[in-house]
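hey
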């Protein structure tokens, strides 16, 4: 890289990091992301030396202790929740910024300086990578780990070095495992690199691979001692989480995947979050990399994408965050393809490619700037506080973290599950008692009407939106962002792309007293409804 190119790279890294830092307090530190809330609550339970284990194993120990330590440093003492939220999000944002630089280094090794700059740009403006960097969860750190392991693998296939090929990959993989057990799949990258190096005989490569795995596991246990100290609980949690992933443990937030087609669902999500062009460019970049003299440097990443893809598409739970580790690899290959295509003599082709790549740029900028806007649940909570009359009852749908944004109001939770499953009278009584009914996200209305276990869902949401229950919409709130109308995920998008940080909130208020008996009669009629039309009923408010 020339000096000018290095300066451009540093500028892209700085700009991409800034996009990950702006709006970092997007929810007013209320913990509106449920996974993040769980991690922070676990971190707050730690009290060294009195309490060393958080009694929380959905994530591994490093995901809890690292934000806790940084939160204590920020607070200059025992941290409160907002200190830990800030710490966790800073870790995500800085890991996301570092990933830009590492991805550029990978592309530099594969195809040169211009490919490195193009890759850095794609990573910097990637919509999902920007979003995940605003959450105090593990996605950003895991994407950084994947890229670091690929960079180390590239060097490993060229010249053997036990420090670089075994010790450093073991360190990176062990830290990744300290965040999430699913990072075990990352071992494909360093192990395959050891086996691909012809300068290292197989009789040496295999022991080195075993040593690498053992060191990584040892570091995972060192950062997550609860695995051993409370093995029974850890095993039970892993069995429960594994059951959710496999579809054998039914939970409400996996109902959205009922009837989804493996691989097709994941590809559709990738198309949406990568904004089209990079996903189309990625396979082109893969072919180009395999046809180049540096084809061995691409093989570890391709092997990982293939193995991880087989694993993820075999799961019944298809959360889009499960795709996080493969996205930076796809973007690196997209950068390689863009570099080659921009060298073609066709001016029309180059212009078309630039326009196509402008879409993910605009999408990423829109997402980043959207985090500066007020969260719609906070805005809705203020509206209800200002407009609710003394004695008004506010009824919420269940499992909505946004309820915390509604203070100083009398509230209760609707018995939605039982009511829509067939026991209409209790739900009818709750609806009749309500004065204000906020719909805080699409989590229920976009899923339950097509779920076989809730046959009354269509009748409920139809009665709510058409006024039969005596309610009408009085306020609606969205996260404002430039070009949000163009890039807001549709109903085909996995729901966590919307409900965590940018839900569409609609507040219904009672305008007419309708007896519970009438509501129960309206509910107790199985009917079908079109989710798209129902979405239109909410979106039009």
């Amino acid at each position: 890289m020339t000096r000018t190119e290095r300066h451009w790279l540093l500028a892209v890294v700085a700009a991409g990091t800034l996009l990950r830092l702006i709006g970092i307090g997007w929810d007013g530190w209320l913990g509106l992301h449920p996974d993040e809330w769980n991690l922070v609550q676990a971190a707050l339970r730690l009290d060294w030396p009195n309490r060393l284990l958080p009694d929380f194993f959905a994530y591994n120990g490093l995901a809890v202790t690292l934000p806790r330590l940084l939160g204590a440093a920020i607070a200059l003492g025992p941290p409160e929740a907002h200190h830990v939220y800030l710490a966790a999000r800073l870790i995500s944002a800085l890991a996301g910024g570092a990933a830009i630089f590492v991805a550029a280094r990978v592309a530099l090794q594969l195809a040169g300086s211009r490919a490195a700059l193009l890759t850095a740009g794609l990573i910097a403006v990637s919509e999902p990578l920007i979003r995940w960097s605003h959450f105090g969860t593990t996605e950003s750190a895991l994407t950084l780990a994947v890229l670091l392991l690929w960079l180390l693998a590239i060097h490993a296939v060229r010249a053997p070095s036990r420090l670089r090929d075994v010790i450093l990959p073991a360190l990176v993989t062990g830290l990744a495992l300290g965040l999430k057990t699913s990072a075990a799949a990352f071992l494909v990258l360093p192990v395959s690199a050891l086996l691909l190096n012809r300068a290292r005989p197989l009789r040496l490569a295999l022991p080195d691979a075993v040593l690498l795995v053992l060191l990584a596991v040892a570091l995972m246990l060192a950062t997550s001692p609860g695995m051993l100290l409370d093995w029974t609980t850890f095993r039970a949690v892993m069995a429960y989480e594994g059951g959710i992933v496999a579809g054998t443990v039914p939970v409400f937030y996996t109902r959205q995947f009922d009837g989804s087609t493996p691989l097709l669902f994941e590809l559709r999500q990738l198309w949406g979050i990568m904004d089209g062009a990079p996903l189309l460019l990625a396979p082109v970049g893969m072919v180009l990399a395999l046809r180049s003299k540096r084809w061995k440097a691409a093989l570890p990443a391709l092997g990982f994408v293939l193995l991880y893809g087989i694993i993820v598409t075999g799961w019944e739970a298809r959360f889009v965050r499960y795709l996080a580790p493969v996205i930076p690899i796809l973007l690196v290959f997209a950068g390689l393809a863009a570099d080659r295509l921009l060298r073609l003599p066709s001016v029309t082709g180059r212009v078309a490619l630039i326009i196509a790549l402008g879409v993910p740029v605009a999408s990423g900028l829109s997402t980043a700037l959207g985090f500066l806007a007020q969260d719609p649940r906070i805005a809705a909570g203020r509206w209800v506080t200002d407009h609710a009359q003394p004695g008004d009852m506010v009824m919420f749908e269940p499992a909505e973290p946004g309820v915390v944004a509604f203070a100083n109001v009398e509230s209760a939770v609707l018995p939605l599950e039982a009511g829509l499953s067939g026991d209409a009278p209790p739900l009818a009584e709750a609806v009749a008692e309500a004065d204000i009914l906020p719909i805080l996200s699409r989590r229920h209305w976009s899923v339950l009407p097509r779920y076989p276990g809730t046959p009354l869902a269509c009748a409920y949401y139809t009665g709510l939106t058409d006024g039969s229950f005596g309610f009408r919409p009085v306020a609606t709130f969205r996260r404002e962002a430039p070009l949000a109308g163009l890039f807001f995920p549709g109903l085909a998008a996995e729901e966590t792309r919307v409900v965590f940080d940018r839900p569409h909130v609609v507040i219904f208020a009672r305008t007419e007293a309708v007896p519970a008996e009438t509501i129960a009669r309206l509910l107790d009629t199985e009917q079908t409804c079109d989710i798209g039309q129902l979405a239109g009923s909410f979106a039009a408010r």
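The radius of gyration is 25 Å. The mean pLDDT is 93.
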